[in-house]
Amino acid sequence: QTTILEVNELRTYFPIRKGILQRTAGYVKAVDGVSFRVNKGEVFGIVGESGCGKSTTGRSILQLIKPTGGEVIFEGQDVTRLNEEAMRRLRRDMQIVFQDPFASLNPRHKVSKILEEPLLVHGFGTVRERREKVAELIETVGLNASQLERYPHQFSGGQRQRIAIARALMLRPKLIIADEPVSALDVSIQSQILNLMQDLQQSFQLTYVFIAHDLSVIKHFCDRVAVMYLGQIVEMADKESLYSEPRHPYTKALLSAVPNPDPEGPRERIILEGEVPSPANMPQGCVFHTRCPMAEERCRHERPVLEQTSHNHAVACHLYASPAV
Ligand code: SF4
Ligand code: MG
Fold it and tell me: pLDDT: is 193 or 1 the higher one?
C-alpha cells in the first residue's frame, strides 16, 4: 500500500478579534492537531457533527484555508510549503466536491462553460479538444451532452451534483475531497450519487477523503473512518472494526443513531446531553468530557492522546489507555 496523503499535526486556528482595535482575543481552534494517512485508492471517511472541524480539515489540506501549523504531505511533497506555481500544478491532482452544488456552480454560466473552465485555467488543449473532453465527462457522470447548453438552475439537485463531480474530474485528479456531497440531497438521490462516485473511483483510480456528518451515509463506502469532535480525531479505525466495536463514547453515541438492520444486535439509542462546546472555548482535559456519560475525574484535567488499541484501531480515551510502564 502506498500512502498518497499524510496529514501530520494539522492545526487551523482562527483569531477572534475584539474591540475597535480588533485585537486578537483568543483563537477558535477549528482543527487542533489532526494526523492521519490515506492510502492510494482508498476511501477515508471523516465523520462528526457540524462544527467539529471536518470541513476546515478538508479545506486546509487543499490550502483553500491556510493552516496555522502542521504538515500536509501529498505524494511526498509538503503542500504547506509550496510556492504558488507548484501549488497550481498540484491543484490538478487534488479536487474538492462541495455539499451544495448550487452554491458551487456559477448560476450565470452554461454547464459547457462551467466544465471547460478548469481546462482553460490549466491551459489544456485546443477549443475542439476541450469541447470533446467536456462532452465525454458529462456523459461519464450520467448526463447528456445535449444538456450542456443549459444553466445550473435547469437541473435537479442530484444532477447539479453530477455536474460538480464532472467538473472535479476534468483535470483527472488523483484525490477528491468530498465534503458532504450528498447531505443536501433527497435520500432517494443520495444512493445514486454514492453509486456514481463508487463507479468513478474504479474507472478513474481515485482516492477519496469523504466527509460526512453521520456514520450511516458512509457505512458502505469507506475503508477507514476517523471520528472528529471539536477539532480533534477521537477515534480512527478500519470500517469493520469501527462499526462492530466502537470504543470512544462519542462514536458509540453516533453509531447508536444509525439504523441497525441486524435483529440480533439491537442497539440502544444513546442521547448525548448538552451542546457541543464552542471551539473558541475548548474544555480542558478530554474535549468530550462535558458530554461524556463515562467521564471520570481525570477526564476534566488530562487530555487523552490517540492511541493504537489494535493494529487497525486507535482511540483517544482514558478508558482504553495502556497503563503507564
Ligand atoms: Fe469520556 Fe473520559 Fe474517555 Fe473523554 S477520556 S471520552 S471524558 S471517558
Ligand atoms: Mg461542513
Answer: 193
The residue type found at 88 is R
**Are 213 and 50 contacting, i.e. CB atoms less than 8 angstroms apart?**
yes
Mean pLDDT value across residues 33-38: 98
**Domain ranges for the chain:** 3-320
Is the ipTM here above 0.85?
yes
Mean local confidence (pLDDT), 245-266: 81
Q: Which residues line ligand 1 (CB under 6 A)?
A: 248-249, 286, 288-289, 292, 294-296, 299, 304, 317-319
pLDDT at 56: 97
> For the structural domain made of 3-320, what CATH number should be given?
3.40.50.300
How close is the Cα of 48 to the center of ligand 1, in Å?
16
**Alpha-helical regions (H) of the chain:** 54-61, 84-93, 101-104, 111-121, 127-140, 157-169, 187-204, 239-244, 249-256
Residues 6 or more apart whose CB falls under 8 angstroms from that of 256 comprise 267, 268, 269, 270
Phi, psi of 291 (to 5 degrees): -125, 0
CA 205 to CA 173: how far, in whole Å? 9
Q: Tens digit of pLDDT for each residue in 67-102?
A: 999 999 999 999 999 998 888 888 899 999 998 877
Q: What's the distance, Cα to Cα, between the start and end of the chain in Å?
A: 33
> 58 CA distance to ligand 2 centroid (A)?
9
Q: Provide DSSP, 278-323.
A: PTTSPPSSSTTTTT-TT--GGGGTPPPP-EEEETTEEE--GGGPPP
* Angle, vertex CA 89, rays to CA 6 and CA 81, nearest 5: 50
Q: How many CB atoms lie within 10 A of CB 277?
A: 17
Among all ligands shown, which has an atom nearest to the Cα of 46?
2
By residue count, the chain amounts to: 325
Q: Which ligand is nearest to the CA of 52?
A: 2
How much is the average pLDDT of 42-47? 97
Given a contact cutoff of 8 angstroms between Cβ atoms, the answer to whether 206 and 96 are in contact is no
304 CA → ligand 1 middle, Å:
8
Of the chain, the percentage scoring pLDDT greater than 70 comes to 96
